[in-house]
Amino acid sequence: MIDMTSTSTTQNIHIRSSYDKVFDYLQQPVNQREWAIHFVKDVKEGPDGYIAVLPFGELPLKMHSDKTTGILDMELGQSRIPTRLISKGPNECLYIFTLFRPEGISDMEWLQVAIPNLREELFSLKQILER
Fold it and tell me: How far apart are alpha carbons 83 and 43 in whole angstroms?
């Protein structure tokens, strides 16, 4: 049985687009503001890199990516968000995203807001990349 009130959730989405197109899009920090519509309000480029504007403030944003292995980890402040991209064929990919439950978030917020918001963001990403 899956414990939906756990400390993380891993979601995935199939994207009908080339691996190169999806990878190249996801590795660009500024693109976060286009699809992570509930979490990233903006991404600014500063002298020391990128800054993510979030609902609760601003944090440095870095991408750690490797096209060969499909690693597309995001470093947001002191946290690392693991994501992976897997090629499923010439024009199909699987994007895997693990969201860690923030401290202090209630079970209700986790189940009824955070997880559904992540699913909506992944669907938004799919729509953008399948155009």
Answer: 19
User: pTM (2 decimals)?
Assistant: 0.90
> How confident is the model over 63-112, as pLDDT tens digits?
999 999 999 999 999 899 999 999 999 999 999 999 998 888 999 999 99
**Residue 101 carries which DSSP code?**
P
Q: How far apart are CA 36 and CA 39, in angstroms?
A: 6
- CA nearest 22: which of 54, 76, 65? 65
Give burial (CB, 10 Å; 0-12/13-18/19+) of 52: buried
**Which residue reads 């946290």 in tokens?**
79
CA 42, 62, 85, 35: dihedral to nearest 10 degrees?
A: 0
